[in-house]
Each structure stands twice: as C-alpha cells, then as structure tokens.
Amino acid sequence: MASSSLSLFFLFSLLSPILIASSPVQDPELVVQEVHRSINESRRNLGYLSCGSGNPIDDCWRCDANWEKNRQSLADCAIGFGKNAIGGKNGKIYVVTDSSDDDVVNPKPGTLRYAVIQDEPLWIIFARDMVIKLKEELIMNSFKTIDGRGASVHIAGGPCITIQYVTNIIIHGLNIHDCKQGGNTNVRDSPSHYGFRTISDGDGVSIFGGSHIWVDHCSLSNCHDGLIDAIHGSTAITISNNYMTHHDKVMLLGHSDSYTQDKNMQVTIAFNHFGEGLVQRMPRCRHGYFHVVNNDYTHWEMYAIGGSADPTINSQGNRFLAPNDRSSKEVRPHLLTFFFLFFIFFFEFLKPISKFSLH
Ligand SMILES: *[C@@H]1O[C@H](CO)[C@@H](O)[C@H](O)[C@H]1NC(C)=O
C-alpha cells in the first residue's frame, strides 16, 4: 500500500506540470455554442421526461432514480469551460465520518482534510449531516470530488477551501459560509508534504493557478473576502447552480490588471442565483473570456457584472431584477474603459485598437 501510493505520488508529480499548464481553448465561441446546444436539448426533452427541469446539468443526473449508486456519473454533467473537470471519477469512494479538524499537519483518517490531501483520485462523500469548522484552509490535492449530496454539510466558521496549483476538482452540494482568514502556520497539502501558509484571504472557495474546476450547487454566504475567487492563471472553470447571498465582493476572476497570464482565463458562470444582501462582483472580470449565462440576479447594491483589463464578457439570458435605486439600473462600461476609449481616441494612429467587448 505504502509503495503503491508512493509510486502514484511520483506519477502525479511527473504529470502535474503538464496538467496544470492548461492552455485555453482556441475558440471560446465553440464552447459557448455547446452550452446553448445542451440547454436547448434539455428544454426539448421537457415534454417527455417527468423529472426534466430544462437545466441540462441537473437533468443529467437527477433523472436517474439510482443516482446514489452512480454518484460518479455527475462528473459527466458539467457544461462550459469546466466541462472536462473529472474530479475523483474512477477513484474510490471515501466516506467522511469525522467532522473534526484538530491536526492540520497530520489529519486523522475519516476527516475531510485527510481525504482531500491524498494523491489518488477520490470521490468524497459524507456519512451524515455535519458542520465542519476547519482550523486552517482546506488545501486540496488534484482529482477530488467533494460530493455533499444526501447529507447537509456545512463548511463554516473557520477558513474554507483552497484550490492551489491543482487540477480536476469538483465541489458539489456544500454549504460554505462565514469563512475566515487562516494561516501563519504549517498545513499539509499531500501525504508527502506540508508547508508554511501565510495569512489567507478568507474566501469561500479560493482558486489559485488551478484548472479544470467545477463548483456546482453550493450555497455560499458571508465570507471574509470573496465567495469564489479565481486568480493567478486559473482557467477551465465552471461555476453553476450556486445560491449566493449576504456578501460584498462576490466573485473576483483575475486579481490584477498587470497579471497578463490571466488572458488564458476561461470561465462559465451559469444557472446561479445571486440573491439577497449581495453588493458587487457577480463577477468582476479581468483579461480572459467569461460566459455569463442564464443566471438570476435578484439583488445587488453597487453593480452586478463588471470588469477591467480588456476582458470579454459574454452575458446571455440572464435575468436582472434591479433594486429600486437609479444608479443600480445603469448599464455602463467600467470607468477605466472610459480612460481606455479616451486613450484610443487620441492615439489611434500610433497604436492599433485593442479588442474590447462588453456585450
Ligand atoms: C438554441 O435554441 C435557440 C432558440 O430556438 C436557437 O436560436 C439557437 O440557435 C439554438 N442554439 C444551438 C446552438 O442549438
């Protein structure tokens, strides 16, 4: 057992640089069309399937009365840029039985932390309802699914989930809220390694240099920094069917205008409900390509969707129910865009016009 997990570890260390350096898809519009095709198909089946909802992700697994026996078929249900995230598919089922998180360097078998740091693919489920108050960030290893279906699982009151330099992660059906900062201590991130963590942002889900990530059907609220932030060269991400409430800076996709590697960032934001008590960043985008489709915006205080640094934001089929406040109803480019356009106006003969689209 020890030697087989050791050799697995070497296999993954050889593979991981290749897997992490995920290149963007050449033509993002093809992925957009594929999303529309699957939405259309789901709608066409509405008349025939009694369980059909018109939501292609849900209809993919909820129509299976035996879903609990076939949990891993969820991995085939994603749409959009994160569609190929396989999570822990083809790995063992790991059942979390212990909600504690007492030792973050040597986590106890049965805990969520023990499960997520393993090198082998794992499909992680929960033995019963539980509230997990993490002592430090939950640092995930590649090829994991955290599947909360069938139990009411809260990750709350402490630091939350970190997806850093890893790939193929599915997070489904968790309640993630009241996340706090952690850090200034050692935390284990694989069976063979632990390291010192500086103070964390306090996000619900923090994606840092991660790829092939799918966050589906989670409720997220009231965290210290973002609910879901994806930065530092992260790409191939789908964020779908989530219910987000009571939070200021909801979703940051790209952390700085000068970090041009985020040009490769491709994210699908689909079928989410942005609800009461939200203020801004649903999402706030930089550099990459963002397909924001079929979301329901029922509350925002400052703005819903925004961006800077020449992002392409393809917003389709969203419903915006503006608050009764004039400034929240405007559709306008970001202030920086005005400076950008101003710049082009005066220097158009010196500099070719860059592409900017905010559909
Ligand atoms: C989806 O259906 C709409 C409305 O019928 C249609 O305009 C669109 O072309 C379809 N898209 C795809 C990719 O099938």
Please give a structural write-up:
The chain is an alpha/beta fold. It has one domain (24-323): Single-stranded right-handed beta-helix, Pectin lyase-like (Pectate Lyase C-like). Helices cover 17% and strands 31% of the residues. It is built from 5 helices and 29 strands. It has helices at 2-20, 28-44, 56-62, 112-116, 335-347; strands spanning 92-96, 122-126, 130-132, 138-139, 144-147, 153-156, 161-164, 167-172, 175-177, 185-190, 193-197, 205-208, 211-216, 219-221, 228-231, 235-240, 243-245, 247-249, 251-253, 266-270, 273-274, 278-280, 284-286, 289-293, 296-297, 306-308, 312-316, 319-320, 357-358. The strands form 5 sheets. It has a 10-stranded parallel sheet with strand order 1-2-5-8-13-16-20-24-27-29. An 8-stranded parallel sheet has the order 3-6-9-14-17-21-25-28, with no helix packed on it. Strands 4-7-12-15-19-23-26 form a 7-stranded parallel sheet. Strand 1 (92-96), helix 4 and strand 2 (122-126) form a beta-alpha-beta unit. The protein starts with a helix and ends with a strand. Mean pLDDT is 87; it is low at 1-21 and 335-359. Residues 33, 36-37, 40 line the site of 2-acetamido-2-deoxy-beta-D-glucopyranose. 2-acetamido-2-deoxy-beta-D-glucopyranose is lined by residues 33, 36-37, 40.
- Biggest β-sheet strands, sense, barrel: 10 strands, parallel
Portion of residues in helices? 10-25%
Output the radius of gyration: 20 Å
DSSP helix count? 5
Give the termini separation.
54 Å
The fraction of residues assigned to DSSP E strands is 25-35%
